[in-house]
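Record type: monomer structure entry
Structure origin: computed from sequence
Chain ID: A
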Amino acid sequence: MYKRILDHLNAAILLFDDRLQLTYVNTAGEILLADSSRHLLGLTAFDLFRFADPSLLSNLQQCLTTAEPFVERELALDRLTRSVTINIIATPLFLDDQVSEILVELQQVSNHLRISKEEQLLTQQHTARLLVRGLAHEIKNPLGGLRGAAQLLDLELHDPELKEYTHIIIAESDRLQGLMDKMLGPNKLPNKTYLNIHEVLERVRQLIEAESTGQVAIKCDYDPSIPEILADKDQLIQAILNIARNAVQAMDGKGMLILKTRIYRQMTIGRKRYKLAIKCDLIDNGPGVDPDIMNQIFYPMITGRAEGTGLGLSIAQALINQHNGLIECTSEPGNTVFSILLPLENGHD
C-alpha cells in the first residue's frame, strides 16, 4: 500500500539499506535517475551518485554512522546525458536502536521552478482574460449602436458620396467587432473525441509547407508510443497552427521548424498532477523572442512584429487551457521552443 502512495508523489523517494545499497525507488525516482527500478535496485549510493557533488556521498555515510538526518540544497546531479539540480533530505530509519535504512527524498529544483512559473502564468492569464473580456464587452455594446445608426443613416441618404462614408463606418464597425470576438477567445466548448496527436501535427505540417512554398524545412520527431488523446481536433489544429505560423514569420519564411512529441509520466501542469501527459514541442532556429516581452507573449495585443495583432498566441493558450493543458516558451537566438503540455487523464490536486 505504501508503495502505491509513494509512486504518486512528485518527489523522488529512494530507500538505502545499511550498506547504502538501493532497495526501493518510486516512479518519480526512476524518472529523475533516467532508469528503471529493475536496473537501479541493488546499486550502491556510490554507483548512483558518483557524478554528483562529493558532499552527497560523504553526508549519506555520515547519516548512517551518526544517525543524524541532513538536508542539502542545490546539489548538481549528472545522470546519463543530462544534469539536474536537486535538493536532498535524508532521514535515518531505526531497527532495534540501530540505523537499518536511510530514506532519501530528492526534489528537482528546476521542476519546482517550472511549476511555480506555471502557477504564476495561469494566474496572470486568468486576470488578463477577465480584464480583456470586460473591456471587449464594454466596447461591443456601443459599437453595435454605432453600426445600427450608420445603417439607418445610410437608408436616409441618397447621395452616393455620402453613402460611401456610412459604408466605411459599417465596415470598420464589423472589423472591430471581429477583433473584439478574437480578444474574447474561444466562444464554444471543445467537441472532444479520441484522436492521435500526430494527425493534428501532420495537418499543421501540410498547411505550413503549403504556405511557405517549401522554404521552411520541417523535421518531425514523433514518439509513436503516445496513446490517443480526448480532444477537439479543430481547436488543437488552430492552436498549434498559430504557434507554427508565428515561428515561420519570426524566421522570415526561411529556416528549420521541428515538431517533436514525447510522453511524460507524473507531470504537473499548472496546479494539477497527471500520471501521463503529452509534451509537444515546436522548435525553430529564428532570432528568438524579444526578452522585453518574453513574460507577456501570451497576453492579447502583445506582439514583436509591427504588422502583428498579438492575438495568435493568446488564442492558442486559451484553446489549450480548455483541454486542461498549458503552453510554455523558452527562447534564445537560434533556438525558440514552444512546449504544449496536454494531460492524458484527469488530474489530482
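Annotation 1: Residues 2-111 form a domain with the Beta-Lactamase fold (CATH 3.30.450.20).
Annotation 2: Residues 70 and 90 are 5 Å apart (CA to CA).
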